[in-house]
Design brief:
Strand content: 25-35%
Order of helices and strands: EE
Radius of gyration: 14 Å
Number of helices: 0
Strand order of the largest sheet: 1-2
Structural class: mainly beta
Number of strands: 2
Largest sheet: 2 strands, antiparallel
């Protein structure tokens, strides 16, 4: 995800409040094909 004036990708998130604080979980594809993202691979 590039937050400048150009490309923005989708990053789903879920937020939960419990035990007096917030927890936010973000997710995205490990390999996006974009040169703006870090590419993760299990190989």
């Amino acid at each position: 995800m590039y937050c400048g004036s150009q490309w923005q990708g989708e990053i789903p998130a879920v937020a939960r409040y419990g035990n007096g604080g917030w927890a936010i979980e973000f997710s995205r594809n490990l390999v996006t094909g974009s040169d703006k993202d870090v590419q993760f691979s299990d190989q």
